[in-house]
UniProtKB/TrEMBL annotation:
<dbReference type="GO" id="GO:0016853">
    <property type="term" value="F:isomerase activity"/>
</dbReference>
<comment type="similarity">
    <text>Belongs to the isomerase IolB family.</text>
</comment>
<dbReference type="InterPro" id="IPR014710">
    <property type="entry name" value="RmlC-like_jellyroll"/>
</dbReference>
<dbReference type="Pfam" id="PF04962">
    <property type="entry name" value="KduI"/>
</dbReference>
<dbReference type="InterPro" id="IPR011051">
    <property type="entry name" value="RmlC_Cupin_sf"/>
</dbReference>
<dbReference type="InterPro" id="IPR024203">
    <property type="entry name" value="Deoxy-glucuronate_isom_IolB"/>
</dbReference>
<comment type="function">
    <text>Involved in the isomerization of 5-deoxy-glucuronate (5DG) to 5-dehydro-2-deoxy-D-gluconate (DKG or 2-deoxy-5-keto-D-gluconate).</text>
</comment>
<keyword id="KW-0413">Isomerase</keyword>
<comment type="pathway">
    <text>Polyol metabolism; myo-inositol degradation into acetyl-CoA; acetyl-CoA from myo-inositol: step 4/7.</text>
</comment>
<dbReference type="InterPro" id="IPR023770">
    <property type="entry name" value="IolB_Bacilli"/>
</dbReference>
<dbReference type="InterPro" id="IPR021120">
    <property type="entry name" value="KduI/IolB_isomerase"/>
</dbReference>
<protein>
    <recommendedName>
        <fullName>5-deoxy-glucuronate isomerase</fullName>
        <ecNumber>5.3.1.30</ecNumber>
    </recommendedName>
</protein>
Length: 272
């Protein structure tokens, strides 16, 4: 049985766009985070009027045009597959505005939502401006693309990152959480994970659990799945032979990423 935290892919046409995933506040435990994944054929378009939420439009694969008012960002996107392992272009749109996304080629587009705390300028986040970092060591290595980190003031509440983890490694590890509004020690941030695998028939394991185990779910996550993390620790393990990609969307009362490691496993960081 599929966990209530795991969403399998959709294939639902909505106008000219195919909806591949949809996790919104109205149909989940989340209060701050929303996520939608759409697929566009060449020339097909998707339009949305934002009200209370801001949105980061990520050109996951393929080429797209994004229009918001007088802003036109033409032919953006950098890769045919997320496993090209290079950063891509995104567009940030504040709440109270409308936007249109049109496919230049076959395109997959991630729409990442969180509350619009204050109006901010519409902004193109160019691939070359996305910071890349290597995290971890031993069997805990991953590559991170910081699309909207907390050091970037382009958004009012939204945080967006991409993570690559090779087979035999764990990610979001040692297990960490950010479910207490207790700064400066820890921030409260909900999170979604959109997963892709290479090759696509692969799977990863993701566990979401709290200290008291009132929430404790371990999932076999396949290509195209979304995992919802309302609270708790949330490590990801990647089997040998497969590569993992996931896109994280985070938001909470304050736009600060401050996590707390599971004390039972924090010793891993101090290995010689």
């Amino acid at each position: 049985m599929v966990s209530h935290l795991q969403r399998k892919p959709l294939n639902e046409m909505r106008g000219e766009a195919k909806i591949l995933q949809e996790v919104m506040k109205r149909d989940s435990r989340l209060r701050y985070v929303g996520f939608r994944l759409i697929e566009l054929a060449p020339g097909a378009s998707y339009e949305e009027a934002l009200t209370e939420d801001e949105c980061c439009i990520v050109a996951l694969t393929g080429r797209i045009d994004v229009t918001q008012g007088e802003h036109v960002f033409a032919n953006i996107g950098t890769r045919e597959s997320v496993f090209d392992r290079k950063a891509t272009d995104s567009v940030f749109v504040s709440g109270g505005r409308s936007f249109k996304v049109q496919g230049r080629s076959e395109a997959k587009v991630a729409l990442c939502y969180s509350p619009s705390v204050k109006p901010l300028p519409t902004k193109l986040i160019k691939a070359e401006d996305v910071g890349t970092e290597e995290r971890g060591k031993y069997q805990n290595k991953r590559t991170v693309h910081n699309i909207l980190p907390d050091s970037d003031s382009s958004a009012s509440s939204l945080l967006v990152v991409e993570v690559y983890t090779e087979g035999g490694n764990f990610s979001s590890y040692p297990p960490h959480k950010h479910d207490r509004d207790n700064l400066p020690q820890e921030s409260f941030l909900e999170e979604t994970y959109y997963h892709e695998l290479d090759p696509q028939q692969g799977f990863v394991f993701q566990r979401v659990y709290t200290d008291d185990r009132s929430l404790d779910e371990t999932m076999a996550v396949e290509h195209g799945d979304v995992v919802i993390v309302p609270v708790g620790y949330h490590p990801v393990g990647v089997p040998d032979g497969y590569s993992s990609y996931y896109l994280n969307v985070m938001a909470g009362p304050q736009r600060v990423w401050k996590f707390h490691n599971d004390p039972d496993h924090e010793w891993i960081l101090n290995r010689k």
